[in-house]
Amino acid sequence: MQQRVGIARALAIQPDILLMDEPFSALDEFTREKLHDDLLRIWSNTNKTVVFVTHNISESVFLSDRVCVLSPHPGRLSAIVDIGLPRPRTKAVRESDEFFHLVSKVRNSFEEVG
């Protein structure tokens, strides 16, 4: 519930860009997936730009149009992976071969930068 309130508070000021820094990292998987659905619905209704920081590769693929991979030190952009998954993002998308292929592609990009 606290995460939903935080998102609502951020949207109340009507920002052009919504910045989210690991907002779901402390949640269990089922709650996180529910909030993914909520966030995607909000995004669909508002069409806001969202910059979402996460260390969870599956989460980044499911929520994103693009995943930016940063190098550790110094933090530089080292790869951009386009995510062409269909919308709306459903459980079927999360379980698709294409989803797992993209998760693997992003993981490989991280491994390449160390």
Automatic annotation (TrEMBL):
This is Aliphatic sulfonates import ATP-binding protein SsuB. It comes from bioreactor metagenome. SUPFAM superfamilies: P-loop containing nucleoside triphosphate hydrolases. Signal peptide: none annotated. Its EC number is 3.6.3.-. One of its GO terms (molecular function) is ATP binding. InterPro entries: ABC_transporter_ATP-bind, P-loop_NTPase. Keywords: ATP-binding, Hydrolase, Nucleotide-binding, Transport. It is an enzyme of class 3 (hydrolase).
